[in-house]
Design a protein that fits this description.
It is a single chain. This protein is an alpha/beta fold and about 475 residues long. Helices cover about 45% and strands about 10% of the residues. A 6-stranded mixed beta sheet has the order 6-7-5-8-9-10, with helices on both faces. Helix 4 packs antiparallel against helix 6, helix 6 packs antiparallel against helix 7 and helix 6 packs across helix 8. The protein is elongated. One of its GO terms (molecular function) is GTP binding. Pfam families: FeoB_N, NOG1, NOG1_N.
Length: about 475
């Protein structure tokens, strides 16, 4: 130090490098581990170099910077978690899988009509002042024009970005809700509408940036005003050209929010049967649901929900569209809604039969449909109900002879153990309510058992 000072030299002192935690000891590397870690090491070091100054010293001793890369490593695989922290790691496949729950439709954002978005954007952008302190008139005008065009662009595009980001992706939905989207709007329509919204957003952003840049290069006040007017016109034209996508999204959001909410943890009774056999009438006497009751088929065109409160317990009841006798591939979307409920929801089945044929469907056709559904979903808890029992024998049957002995047996007695009910004459209604309560109580026990089994499996897979 003295020698350097006497020679009038300058001593350059380098700052002490920040403390770095030593890396944790590595486990013995297998062939697969060595290959994966060597492949990911450059990316890890590159990410380390981009850390802000002074960040590493804040780490506690023994904490490795590799955790900042959000990598999950094991002796067999290395999975980059990205931004998917809400998922869960499937140990068998090494993939990130989101929890499948229902209720996503009630969380979608409110969609403003295109006219309201445009009027709000115009009003807000016109109130944007130039930057303070600009004395030159031309500079002040071009600054104001560029800022107002930028504000108009953002006011038009930000809502569209919100919609595309906050509407659920189909792949993240519960299978039941995925089916509802497909059967309600048709295959691919939901994604198509969101894609058009995103295309409109990109178009508005491109036009807005282009005209804001041009306006910022104006040399005179008049030129800046003209370019501001032209930019507004082009932005509004671009928005008007794609506003039909917003109108379509408004309808999609309205339809999705109106769909019934199903709680997977509450036992649900699902009424199934041919059209017009009396399912809706039974829903009205069993629950709080008030579906339309008419004497023509396919009155129920969607999934209708009601609730039962019995002995301080709460249950759900759903009315489904009727099923005709035909192959599943030939069913319309209304019938496929019923199959979606049976396939994807933990429900108990109340199957309704009309042996009087007052529904317009022959006993033979009802039997074939019933046999198909019973074979396919026979693992569900089940009650068979013969409705309109007061009409049995009072109406001439549609088909007088039954070639099949099984159909003849079904015509006389219905399925084994079926309960005969008449809503009009109140026959068997009290017994039906008791049977339904017993069925749903059993369904509650099954749901709890399945939940406990699932938690046990998760606990087992999470143990290293």
């Amino acid at each position: 130090m003295r020698a350097a000072a006497g020679c009038r030299g300058v001593l350059h002192l380098r700052p002490r490098p920040p403390w770095r935690a030593p890396p944790p000891p590595r486990p013995p590397a297998t062939t697969t581990t060595t290959a994966l870690l060597s492949h990911s090491a450059p990316a890890s070091r590159a990410h380390h170099r981009r850390l802000p100054k002074g960040f590493l010293p804040t780490l506690e001793p023994g904490v490795s910077a590799v955790y900042l890369c959000r990598r999950a490593r094991s002796t067999t695989c290395s999975v980059l978690m990205d931004d998917r922290s809400q998922g869960e790691l499937d140990g068998a496949k090494g993939e990130v899988r989101k929890h499948e729950t229902v209720g996503a439709f009630q969380k979608i954002p409110m969609v403003m009509p295109a006219t309201d978005i445009l009027m709000s954007a115009q009003r807000k952008s016109r109130n944007v002042p130039p930057t303070k302190g600009i004395a030159n008139i031309a500079k002040r005008e071009r600054n104001k024009g560029a800022k107002q065009l930028d504000a108009l662009m953002k006011e038009l595009s930000v809502p569209l970005r919100t919609y595309t980001e906050n509407f659920p992706k189909r792949r993240d939905l519960h299978p039941y809700e995925r089916s509802l989207i497909e059967l309600t709007f048709g295959e691919g329509y939901y994604e198509q509408v969101l894609g058009r919204i995103d295309t409109l957003r990109k178009r508005i952003t491109s036009v807005g940036k282009q005209h804001a840049s041009v306006c910022a290069k104006s040399t005179t006040k008049r030129e800046a005003e003209e370019r501001l007017t032209e930019g507004r016109k082009r932005l509004e034209e671009a928005f008007q050209h794609g506003k039909h996508a917003i109108d379509d999204l408004v309808n999609v959001a309205k339809a999705l929010r109106s769909m019934p909410v199903v709680d997977l943890h509450i036992p649900t009774l699902c009424l199934v049967g041919s059209p017009n056999v009396g399912k809706s009438s039974l829903v009205r006497i069993l629950s709080s649901g008030k579906p339309e009751v008419c004497s023509y088929p396919f009155t129920t065109r969607g999934i209708l929900m009601g609730h039962i409160v019995s002995n301080h317990e709460r249950f759900q009841v759903t009315d489904t569209p009727g099923l005709l006798m035909r192959h599943d591939d030939d069913r319309n979307n209304i019938e496929r809604l019923t199959l979606a409920v049976l396939s994807y929801l933990p429900i108990a089945v109340l199957y309704v039969h009309d042996l009087s044929e007052d529904c317009g469907t022959s006993v033979a056709d009802q039997y074939i449909t019933y046999k198909h559904i019973k074979e396919r979903f026979g693992d569900r808890l089940w009650i068979d109900v013969i409705s309109k029992c007061d009409l049995l024998g009072k109406k001439a049957p549609i088909s007088l002879e039954d070639a099949d002995e099984e159909v003849a047996q079904y015509r006389r007695f219905g399925p084994e153990g079926a309960l005969r009910v008449s809503v009009q004459s109140e026959i068997g209604v009290k017994e039906l309510k008791e049977r339904v309560h017993q069925l749903l109580t059993s369904q509650m026990a099954r749901i709890k058992a399945d939940k406990a089994e699932h938690e046990t499996q998760e606990a087992g897979t999470s143990v290293p």
